[in-house]
Specification:
single chain, 266 residues, alpha/beta, Rossmann fold, seven-stranded parallel sheet, 8 helices, 48% helix, globular
Length: 266
């Protein structure tokens, strides 16, 4: 994992959308530094059970799972209460759950708009609303929202996703101001393209659809906006997260860290 180290022993971290991809990597990064983990997300229950067992064994921490549906505020509140019940505290909240749909605005399905806003934005409001009273009582807390380069810049055909991610930045700044004197920080990480299993599958599909090589898909389609022409790696996101949840990041509040190879510098 990342070379940044911080002692999170005895702390509890809740990570939404953490049964695969970026969320699972972030959960493991926190576990590697001693945090007990509450996973959340979709997937085969046997696979989730195996992930829990592996993280617990590899890092000597406790790992739980809560299947809260990010479309349902009551279940989200239950998840935060579950974390406190299981471990006695909630120290770190990582809002990572998200979905995507791409279409011109005049063809964008209304139900897709509603789902993307609910999962990518409103779910973070609900987790934060439930976690902040616990963190205030503890006198310390770290909230990190996984935004995106699209929280800072736009791309065509992604109206719902860009709107939600811009909203996440507004939520991040607002809550940071509200809790600044309570020992709680609220920040965002804004990744560029990350080579998740979903993206890897899209490379081959896009190459076939466009009649170009996979190398051209990566360079000229997916990474066209990233000056490095390299995917963001999981460990690079873990490094940013560890800084934000550590004591070293205590004065980083209400802001974002771009991990995008220079995308938003243009």
């Amino acid at each position: 994992m990342s070379g940044i180290k911080t002692d999170l022993s005895g702390q509890t971290a809740v990570i939404t959308g953490s049964t695969s991809g970026i969320g699972a990597a972030l959960a493991e990064g926190l576990a590697a530094n001693g945090a007990n983990i509450v996973l959340n997300g979709l997937g085969d229950l046997d696979s989730i059970k195996a992930l829990r067992a592996r993280i617990a064994k590899d890092h000597g921490v406790e790992v739980r799972y809560h299947a809260a549906n990010m479309l349902k505020p009551d279940e989200i509140a239950e998840m935060i209460a579950f974390a406190q019940s299981e471990f006695g505290r909630v120290d770190i909240l990582v809002n990572n759950a998200g979905i995507q749909h791409v279409a011109p605005v005049d063809e964008f399905p209304t139900e897709k708009w509603d789902a993307i806003l609910a999962i990518n934005l409103s779910s973070a409001f609900h987790t934060i609303k439930a976690a902040v009273p616990i963190m205030k009582a503890q006198g310390r807390g770290r909230i990190v929202n996984l935004a995106s380069a699209h929280a800072l810049v736009a791309s065509p055909f992604k109206s719902a996703y860009v709107a939600a991610k811009h909203g996440i930045m507004g939520l991040t700044k607002t809550v940071a101001l509200e809790v600044a004197e309570a020992g709680i920080t609220v920040n965002a990480i804004c990744p560029g393209y990350v080579k998740t299993p979903l993206v890897e599958g899209q490379i081959a599909d896009t190459a076939k659809a466009r009649g170009i090589s996979e190398e051209e898909v990566v360079r000229d389609v997916m990474l066209a906006a990233q000056p490095t022409k390299k995917f963001v790696m999981y460990d690079e996101l873990v490094g940013a997260l560890l800084y934000l949840v550590s004591d070293a990041g205590a004065s980083c509040n209400g802001t974002s860290i771009s991990v995008d190879g220079g995308w938003v510098a243009k």
